[in-house]
Amino acid sequence: MTYEFEGKNEKEAIEKAAAELGLERDQFDVEILETQKNTLFKKGYVKIRVHTLTSQPHAPEAESYAAPVTHRAMANPLPQDEFEQKLLEFISEMITKMGYEVTVEVLFREEKKIGIKLASGSSSILIGRKGKNLDAMQLLANVYAGKLGREDVRVILDTENYRVRREENLVHLAYTTADKVRSSHTSILLEPMNPFERRLIHTTLNDFADIETKSEGDGLYKQVRVIYKGSY
User: Fold this and answer.
1) Which of 100, 81, 68, 72 is nearest to 171 (CA)?
2) What is the pLDDT of residues 179-188, one digit of tens each?
3) How far apart, in Å, are the Cα atoms of 26 and each of 40, 52, 188?
4) How far is CA 165 from the centre of its chain?
5) What CA–CA distances, in Å, run from 131 to 4, 64, 162?
6) What is the per-residue pLDDT across 98-111, written as a single tens digit (0 to 9) for each?
7) Torsion on CA atoms 210, 216, 219, 221, rounded to nearest 10
8) 23 touches 57 (CB < 8 A)
9) What is the model's pLDDT at position 61?
10) 210: helix, coil or strand?
């Protein structure tokens, strides 16, 4: 299920969500909808949307787009238990039936999270435009994990280090877009993005006093509008 909360900043809004829903922080995903800076005449705030993971852990709106694995320690790539064995077999069979050769192994292990590396000569196809194919396969892998009784585990798929490269590109996009709207004194609507990508744009520009961001649209892939507010 989804809920919306507001706070003076992201931390306060998240703490309010956790308190009112009676959940631990790792039991819900956060999507930043809008940020408003403090001005002379208006108090700043952050509006977030919370996707709870306990009742609908594998619904598209609650799908996890976890932070990239830039600083994660490499794990033993071989499956360590029956769950990992079945998960890797499912992912390998899914991609093979799509008509592509692939080698599947464990990339990292964290509490309630596992990263899976896809090595393939067709990585660009597996990634798809803006990572949509990779996201779709990741969703199916999470659904299968739930059927194995592991709704508590989030599965993250990656290939050719796409998640890390995508994060770097989005941070660069956020900064260049901020410069453009600052020069033109207008707003720019960015491409549709998944919840994690949108949150990255919001948080990257969160400390810019003259820039405001908000999500627009419906469904999983919404767009972020970057807005020039002027100097205060």
Assistant:
1) 68
2) 999 999 999 9
3) 36, 9, 33
4) 14
5) 27, 14, 8
6) 999 999 999 988 88
7) -50
8) no
9) 36
10) coil
